[in-house]
Amino acid sequence: MSSSPKRSVLITGCSVGSSGHALALEFANRGMRVFATARSTKSLSQLETKGIEILPLDVTSAESIAALKAEITKRTGGKLDILFNNAGTMYEAPAVEADIVRVRQMFDTNVFGLFNMTQAFLPLLLASASESRLPPAIINTSSIVSRVPFLFSANYNASKAAVTSYSDTLRLELAPLGIKVVTLFMGEVSTRLMSPDNISFGADSLYSDAEAGVQERSRSHAAKSIKPDEFAHQVAQQIFSNPALGKNEYVWKGTLATLVWFLNAVGFRRIFDASVQDAVGLSKSTVRKAIYDKVLHFLIQRLNVFHVRVAHTNKLPTKTRKHQNASSGLQLTMPQPTHAFGDDMSKKSLSQDITTLYTDLSLPAFYVVVIFTEVSDVNLYVRGDQKSETPFIRIVIDQIAIRMEDPNLYASWMATINGVLKPHIKEKGYNWEYHIDETERQLWKVNGLYAPPFGS
After folding, report:
1. Which residue among 70, 107, 223, 443 has its CA within the 20 to 30 Å range from the CA of 374?
2. Domains recognised in the chain with CATH numbers
3. 224 is catalytic
């Protein structure tokens, strides 16, 4: 079998219905000796009837790669003209909620499997370089999503961005060896890679309200994308049109590929944002609000206490007033006349708005206590000088038994607090600031006992 005069190509990821399946048929039709691989050769039976040589391969297994290399070496006499790294898998999920085990499995296939295949078969490509008038080639299947923020697919996008960067660097490193490297930016192709059946964020997901939009995107992808056989024909056409070293090293094929190439070349950095948001309904105000509300609800469910201290100073010295509570408080500092939270109505209005913020999110009202402390302006100094100008309000929020690890939660929470406080303070012309302190649960006791967790 090693005496075949045909140029040889090894294509990974050739399961039925895939782009690799169509590529194997297309390359065979163009007179090449094709080795088609997949995890199971049962999915390759149609190719075998066309005279294509089928072999098992798991690109995540070093043993499987070594066995394939030995078999290809045996059949070709130790030479290979084209290595087509096409195997890949896709996992769609919100970036902050993705199952890291599945993400690693995807990277093992899409990235490290490609790395290992390239290293394993380089000797066979080098052997071919010395005997062929055409340079041997490595074709790496990347994707347009390596250049587009394709929503709820961040980890997959990152895997393809890794392929793009690796392939482009490999192109320069292997050029002195006479080996051509092609990066295939695959657009949307109607394969089984994307399926609405594979998308399930779960009821507890912060993005569950966007799930239907992502599923609809997959259905639209299947209906509107180019078919695999036409995609394969276009890819082969460009690759074979000028196989010389240094030519046709970037191939953009598939639905939207040309458009992405153009906008990526001439457009501004965020040019794709609106279109990718529209595709999954994330531009709809109802969906965005639902996600925002879930973030707040998630945050509140982790709160055992919302503790706010408000201290304010007045022009004239006044007696300090404090209302103690084991679960919360507020401090507001205002060196200025008594009209700045100097009456019960303004205090009650602010306290009610703060309390409503939490009770709307299922936190019991008794967890929210606002404590006003009046401080005389003669006791407040700024830059070492006595402060007696525009009222200054300082707010300290004690979050007890909570520590937010996600910076996105902090941003959302600060924006919400800002919206509640602003009408009572900033819009009255006062200067103000606020900050949040966090206390570990084990450092908090009520009446000498650890308090029960929220919801218990």
Report:
1. 443
2. 8-283 (3.40.50.720), 291-443 (3.30.429.10)
3. no
